[in-house]
Amino acid sequence: MDIENQKIDYKSIRKIRTGDKGFKELAISCVAFANAQGGILYIGIEDKRLIPLEGQTIDEKEVNETVSRLHSLCFNVSLSSSGLIKHENGGEYFQIVVAPSIKSIATTSDGKIYLRIADKCEPVRNEDLQRLSIEKGAHTHKVSYLKLQSVYQMLKRQT
After folding, report:
1. Which of 5, 14, 74, 90 is the most buried (most CB within 10 A)?
2. Contacts of 82 (CB under 8 A, 6+ apart)
3. Residue 5 DSSP symbol
4. Against a cut of 0.90, is the pTM above it?
5. Distance CA 110, CA 117 (A)
6. CB 133 within 8 A of CB 100
7. What is the pLDDT of residues 32-54, one digit of tens each?
8. Helix, strand, or coil (residue 4)
9. What does DSSP say about strands 120-123 and 92-98: parallel, antiparallel, or unpaired?
10. 97 forms bridges with which residues in the sheet?
11. Which stretches of the chain score pLDDT less than 70?
């Protein structure tokens, strides 16, 4: 397996088994990937070893619940899972594929915006927000509305 980078992040199975804190961290990773070029979260892979724990088992229900829970913690994020994958050591893991958010800015459910930079998930700073919105085309709706409003006012004056 590759090391963590712009498009790959490894997370221990403990992230989905320890409750809210682990899921909030996963949501941050999903939002950061979506606001960048997308990426893959490997759930059940230990960072330092890059393999799952020997004999680690994951229930298919855990996979589905993880994706469902992440959907509720992320806005404008497209997620899909690989299903269970068995490593040669007998340990199981799964992947969550995060598609890049093309026309909107992805946020966590509490309204925070993150961006994947190298192998880190960084909060978006104020000065980066305008650049990100231009990249995503998120400002075009307001511009279109203003143009439509101007046309309406011009037509109103002519009548």
Report:
1. 74
2. 94, 95, 96, 97
3. B
4. no
5. 21
6. no
7. 999 999 999 999 998 788 999 99
8. coil
9. unpaired
10. 40, 80
11. 138-159
